[in-house]
Amino acid sequence: MPFPTLNTYLAHLSDPDRPASSVWLDSAGRAQGKYFNCTITSAFQPIRALGSSRIVAYEGLARSASAGDAGLSLWKLLDHAASDDESIELDRLCRMLHAINFFRQDAAGQSDLYLNVHDRLLSAVSSNHGHAFKRILDALDLPVGRIVLQLPATTPQQGWLLNYVADNYRRNGFRLALNAASVAQAQAMVAEQRPHAIKLDARYLSGGVSLEPLLDAARAAGVRLIFKRVESAPALGSPEVVADLPLYAQGFFLDQPQAALVSDAALAA
After folding, report:
1. Where in 124-206 does DSSP place strands (E)?
2. Pairing label, strands 55-64, 38-49
3. In whole angstroms, what is the distance from residue 112 CA to residue 170 CA?
4. Which residues are paired to 49 by β-bridges?
5. Nearest 10 degrees: Cα torsion 98, 104, 106, 107
6. How do residues 167-182 score in pLDDT, each as one tens digit?
7. Which residues does UniProt call coiled coil (predicted)?
8. Residue 55's closest CA among 265, 248, 259?
9. Can you give the pTM of this predicted structure?
């Protein structure tokens, strides 16, 4: 068992005689939690290397609990949370559930876990972003180094806030992924923030905008480029665009989010 402390905690959650708490396991072994009257669990969408389809990471997504993988996305709940304190509580609950549900399945340890940070959290947390989540991971002996916190897109006026939050997360041992609205913004982020990864919309793979300057800058800085919202085969771009480029992609055309990580047998197929 690669994570003995986590397995001890899961055994505790399975104990029918334990006191009621905000986190429990369903009949399939998935960790679930409650926010007001909504039961929340996790779904995971792979991030794949273009060309080889190798899975390098999964993004954790909050879903309403369902018998299969048909739960509804609950990320919009944070938009309507009644207060900053409640939005912080929901965000931390989702991150905890995703970490438990990911690492209880990830015996091989070959991939990272990307977790969203809602834009409301950037200003709602007064200081030391990431410290509370790091304490949870440390208590369960889970590797902070395999978590990539995905920050929302920001305006130029929020640049100071992004730098402040990013610095706090890094001080707590997390790697960062940033969302860019354009190729030009992505290139500026490589130079200024140097995150672990930058996410761009898949439409930039179509060849209408040159990726070479961004790719050269990202390669030199060791920044991973991930193209999101791949909804169709054309969104993956022409072979000339993606040939020999270390690019990554994520989207419903490649994978539907599901509770279970992709099995070794499915990867081989």
Report:
1. 147-151, 175-179, 197-201
2. antiparallel
3. 16
4. 248
5. 160
6. 889 999 999 999 999 9
7. none
8. 248
9. 0.90
